[in-house]
Each structure stands twice: as structure tokens, then as C-alpha cells.
Amino acid sequence: MSDEKDAAAGDASAAAAGAKPAAPVGSPPMTPIDPAGPAPTVLPTGKSNTIGPGIRASLEKKPAGAEPAESRRTFMKVALPVGWVAFSAACASSLVATARFLFPNVLFEPPQAFKAGFPGEYNVGEVDTRWKDAFGVWIVREADGFYALIAVCTHLGCSPNWLAAENKFKCPCHGSGFYRTGVNFEGPAPRPLERARIVLADDGQILVDKSVKFQQEKGEWENPESFLKA
Ligand code: FES
User: Are 168 and 181 in contact (CB under 8 A)?
Assistant: First the structure.
């Protein structure tokens, strides 16, 4: 009895000291666990049924060329959408260019020639401003006839205004002034306003043609088509 107590006391002290516990009496001996894995089983043929470290390493190793193939797949994933976007943009821009070619921006200018009514509709001594906005022309009725002044300042091309109270044309840009005849008398304008061709049409109406202009400084106001006698 005292021997059993001594044995139990010995086991307890050994466990406290971190020693491996002794196998109970009568049980098979304990096999220590190998952290590297189970021990290979030896087959009857004498060969092991486990994979050796060399074979395991060769299996885990990626086949040659696997990484470049993966890189290619990643590249294609990024490059394809970018390529399609660029292709679509190029197609869209060429479509726009084609549309602009087929339907160009056309600048619609007012007609150069127009009929301005019958002579009897004008009052002597008046500047008719009805045609300025649509055709850029004033028609002046004098006692002996008509002339058409082009509403473009001879300084830098602004459009002067007719000031009836002051009996003159005045340019809002730099202050040039023109008499009712179109002759410049103040401001930087270097020469008189230009006159347009004015004749009677077949139907008796006044016909003004801005494509034919007459300049006073060139003596062109003497041209019979620069003044319509009444
Ligand atoms: S453009 Fe008319 S005064 Fe300068």
C-alpha cells in the first residue's frame, strides 16, 4: 500500500515538472505526435504511400509560363474596355465630322437686292429706317430723288444710328458723325458712307441692290444708278 502511494506521488511530481506522463501499467506504449505529419506507411511492396517533400514541392510549384498567361489575362481585362471606348470615340467623332461635312454651318446673309415699295410712299426730306435691320440700308428721300445709304460706318464697320432730331447719323462705337447725305463730318471715320444702287423696277417699285456700291471720294456718286431721280 505504501508502495502504491509512493508511485502516485512520483507521477504527480513528474507531471508538475512537465515530464511526459507515464503510460498506465498494462496499456500499449504511447506514440509521440510528429508535427511534420503522419509517418509514411510502408506498403507490402516496400514503397511508401505518402508524398515526399520533393514531389510535394514539384506539385505545388506553378507550371512554367503560368504567370505570364495570368498577366496577359489581366492586361486583356483592362485593355479591351479601354480599346472599345477609344474605338467608339473615334467612330463618334468621324460621324460628327461626316455630319458637319454633309450639313455645314451656312451663314444666311440678307439678300443683297430688295424692292422697297413705291416712290409715293416716301416723304421728302425724311430718312426711312424701315430697311436698316433687314437689309442694312437707309433710303433718303430728297426733293429731287432718292439714294440708299449703306448702314456701315467707314471707320471700323459698326452700324450707325439715324438721329432725326439732330439730322445726322451717329456711330455708337467711336462717335463718328455723318450728315444726311452720308458725308462724314466728325469722329474718326475717314470717308463718307457708301451708297447702294437704286433704280426703278419693272413694276414701278424702288429696287435697291447692295452688291453695287458707290463711294463719294471716288466720284461714284455721280453715277446715275447711285441716285434715283423723281
Ligand atoms: S466704327 Fe464708327 S466710329 Fe469707329
Answer: no
Q: Pick the atom of ligand 1 nearest to 171's CA.
A: 2
For position 45, what pLDDT does the model report?
A: 57
Which atom of ligand 1 is found nearest the CA of 189? Answer: 3
Contact of 154 with 192, CB cutoff 8 Å: yes
Strands (E), 91-205: 113-115, 127-128, 137-142, 145-150, 161-163, 168-170, 177-179, 184-186, 195-200
Q: Whose CA is nearest to atom 4 of ligand 1?
A: 174
State the chain's mean pLDDT as an integer. Answer: 81
Q: Indicate the length of the chain as a whole number.
A: 230
Q: Name the CATH superfamily housing domain 113-229.
A: Rieske [2Fe-2S] iron-sulphur domain (2.102.10.10)
Q: What's the N-to-C CA distance of the chain in angstroms?
A: 161
Give pTM, 2 decimals: 0.57
205: Cβ–Cβ under 8 A, 6 or more apart, which residues? 115, 116, 117, 118
**Which residue puts its alpha carbon closest to atom 3 of ligand 1?**
174
Q: Kindly tell me the sign of the dihedral angle through the C-alpha atoms of 99, 102, 104, 110.
A: negative
CA 189 to chain centre: 41
User: Which residues are near ligand 1 (CB < 6 Å)?
Assistant: 153, 155-158, 171, 173-176, 187-189
